[in-house]
Amino acid sequence: MTKFKQINGTIASPKGFTADATHAELKFQKLDLGVILSQVPAAVAGVFTTNKVAAAPVLVGKELVAGGLAQAIIVNSAIANAVTGEEGLTNVKKTQRLVAEKFDIDAKHVGVCSTGVIGKQLPMDKIALGISKLSAENGHATGFSEAILTTDLVKKEVVYEVELGGQTVTIAGVCKGSGMIHPNMATMLGFITTDAKIAQPLLQSILSEVIETTFNQITVDGDTSTNDTVYVLANGLAENTEIVAGTEDFDSFKSVLATVCQVLAKKIAADGEGATKLIEVSVSGAPNDLDARMIAKHIVGSSLVKTAIFGADPNWGRIISAIGQVAPFEVPDIELTIQGDLVLLHSTPVDFDQAVLSEKLKEPSIVVQVELNQGEHSGTAWGCDLTYKYVEINALYHS
Asked: Which residues make up the annotated site Cleavage (predicted)?
């Protein structure tokens, strides 16, 4: 398989893309409105929240993906435009028109995303003024990843290059997410741009598959948002030989896209509201991949596990309890390792130095490995600890 490498860059690094951001006064001072633009209409794939109270931008976003093409994505933070009725939908359509007029593109090729407080209408005078400030030529591409943030503490972006079809193809990603994170998807917005040439149905198929083992394997607090969206835009300007299924280029592209999604997903987990530690749980020896992934996700999502790790308490019984709650089969022979220390073998406790393991649990990255001895399949999930700060942030989020 073709090797790929990580490079420095922004969401506008692939050929034919630009990005910009501005302060539209939705927040007090910070950037709060951003746009991604392609020189030409790009194949667009998308995956959206499973929350049955989907925000207005999600409803319109599904229409965008059904159409197969996108040339711009406009994103605002501070206000989610969720549970806003017909006025909310009207405002999404108005935003599409404003972007289309500003950049001389087709309104039906404009994707709209929002994140922030639920139940508030967008102040369209501010949105319109903000859009008027955005530029396609002199864009502030590095500002886009900042403009989409809410309670996030850090920007989350990554760029890779890979040789495909005789050309260098670039894939860039940026995302936001810190709280209300429990995909099938969560308050998470993700945007991926690439200059690869690939047909929209194949791009959608690949995205739908890699989402399952990346973004859908993170959890911060067990709550699924109304606004989750991941878009991939592929404009073909790298001029590579078109990627088709069953080829080495297909495998390489899928691998790079999965890597981009995994890197971004882990950045979200590490930046969970109030988090001090990234937790990775790997489950092996399951009858199938889905069972392994669901068990791993339940462990990392357990409030008891998360609080124990926050307190550096090597209470492995909480992990075993989490396994038993969701495993759809008997698990009589479990092997459990925490931070490299074996604590359970053949479902029997092993002597270990609790003081030493407690010190290891103070490290910023925690790894839990579970062997179920019930099959050949595996899965991994990522999350974070549950801290006093998480309660403080969410007790005061709206006020």
From this structure: 186-187
